[in-house]
Amino acid sequence: MSSPILLGAIADDLTGATDLALMLARNGMKTIQHIGVPAEGSDFGDAEAVVVALKSRTIAADDAVAMALASALALRAAGAEQILFKYCSTFDSTDKGNIGPVAEALMDLLEAPIAVACPAFPAAGRSVYQGHLFVGASLLSDSPMRDHPLTPMRDANLVRVLQKQTASRVGLIPLDIVEAGPDAIRALLIKARQAGFRLMIADAVRDADLRQLGAALAGARLITGGSGIAMGLPDNFRAAGKIGTLEVAGRMTAPKGKAVILAGSCSVATRGQVAAAIGAGLPALRLVPADIVSGKQSIADIANWVLANSGKGPSLVYSSDEPEAVRQIQQKLGAAAAGQLIEQMLGNLAVILRDNGFARFIVAGGETSGAVVAALGITALEIGPEIAPGVPWTRSRGEPDLALALKSGNFGAPDFFLTAWDMLDD
Questions:
Q1: Measured at the alpha carbon of residue 287, what is the angle toward residues 285 and 291, in degrees to the nearest 5?
Q2: Alpha-carbon radius of gyration of the chain
Q3: Alpha-carbon distance 161 to 171, whole Å?
Q4: Do residues 112 and 222 touch, judged by C-beta distance below 8 A?
Q5: Where is 160: in which H helix or E strand?
Q6: Whole-angstrom Cα distance, residue 341 to residue 290?
Q7: Which end of the chain is more exposed for a tag (fewer CB within 10 A), N or C?
Q8: d(C-alpha 129, C-alpha 170), whole Å
């Protein structure tokens, strides 16, 4: 029988959930990742934290709200004392949502009078200052995220971005208050609540700022943000005597089998990783949406190509392309249809490869990762060692037994596809 969990988290995409699960595990909580809305009475074993991975970032807001509420109810029924709503560190969303609508609905469900929103993740170059989100040294609106095919981010002012998505009043916790410590943060939240604010963007430029926020949010019914906001939360449960310490492994035993890389992201980081892999001589095949539609590229042909190259090390199958090429494809096929075409192809390919002895997968892109995991029938993941900030190796629980690195498109160094394998043991 499952033990009551302490922290329940809801992530709006699969790689974001993995990123968060890694953050919690690194900071000492026994954490598992559950794929999809948990069924009533789900067995989470001895987990202290459960991260639910949804595929809700770009769906209709009403559907995203329904999935989040159902997940929150299941996590509360499993004993969760605190709920965390996790979204991307680049605040991926549109004027209609889905961050604001989901956060507001969870506040109502949990009767949370006020909630913090902080996507900062300094280790990955994401910081918030004066309410503005920076990607490295650039404002979000000047970064490659402005050309994201589904959620173009052209305003770096998160107070303004979030205010467009919600009827709740949105305010700011400035950096000087965050640096002043938990008491100052809590005092400002009390004043903000009295003034009618319900959601508060929080500045954070260093890990220390995130730990200050975490300490201030002990006992908060709802927290929202990127994985960084979870950095200080385990210490709250530890201080209360509810968890102990947990050693984090530096390597992972992986099931034996062949390896493959499936890349559906068109981010700058993933395009750089694709180029590095090709430059290093990895066998590589690019998916061309027009050729898939016409039948020139079939799933059988692609699978046969991977199988034929399986003796040469990990093969790379990718759809990553430059922004202008992506726009042209979207104009021809429609943005949603183009994305779904690639996701379905890579999901189907993963199943064929699994059935032919492949057990080690790197998947790049949140939407792609969600499609691949769903196609493979994976329902839960155990968190392994960190490959890069926000990206761990994972191993599926139960059957099929697979090792997976599920990478947000924006994460990882150029050599990620080449070096990640070094952390796996037979």
A1: 125
A2: 21
A3: 11
A4: yes
A5: helix 158-165
A6: 10
A7: N
A8: 16
Q: How, if at all, do strands 126-129 and 252-253 pair?
A: unpaired
Task: Name the residue type at position 374.
Answer: A
The residues pairing with 407 across neighbouring beta strands, listed in sequence order, are 364
pLDDT at residue 253, rounded to an integer? 94
- In our burial notation (b when 16+ CB lie closer than 10 A, e otherwise), range 373-410 reads bbbbebbbbbbbbbbbbbbbbbbbbeeeebbbbbbbbb
pTM (two decimals): 0.86
* Residue ranges of the chain with per-residue pLDDT less than 70: 1-2, 321-323, 325-326, 329, 333, 335-336
Domains along the sequence of the chain with CATH: 7-239 (3.40.50.10840), 252-425 (3.40.980.20)
Paired tokens of 57: 């970032």
Strand locations in 270-390, DSSP E?
284-286, 315-318, 358-364, 380-388
Q: What is the 3 state secondary structure string of 172-219?
A: EECHHHHHHCHHHHHHHHHHHHHCCEEEEEECECCHHHHHHHHHHCCC
Q: Please confirm whether the linkage preceding 98 is cis (ω < 30° from 0).
A: yes
353/372 Cα distance (integer angstroms): 11
Tell me: the pLDDT tens digits for 49-66? 999 999 999 999 999 999
pLDDT at position 323 is 66
Taking the C-alpha atoms of residue 141 and residue 29, their distance in angstroms, rounded to an integer, is 35
User: Angle CA(142)–CA(144)–CA(145) in degrees, nearest 5?
Assistant: 90
Q: Dig out the tokens for 88 from the structure.
A: 């991307």
Question: Rounded distance, CA 336 to CA 346, Å?
Answer: 16
Q: What's the DSSP call for residue 315?
A: E
Q: Indicate the burial class of 201 (C-beta count within 10 angstroms; 0-12, 13-18, 19 or more).
A: buried
Whole-number Cα distances in Å, 255 to 6, 258, 314, 395, 397: 30, 9, 15, 9, 12
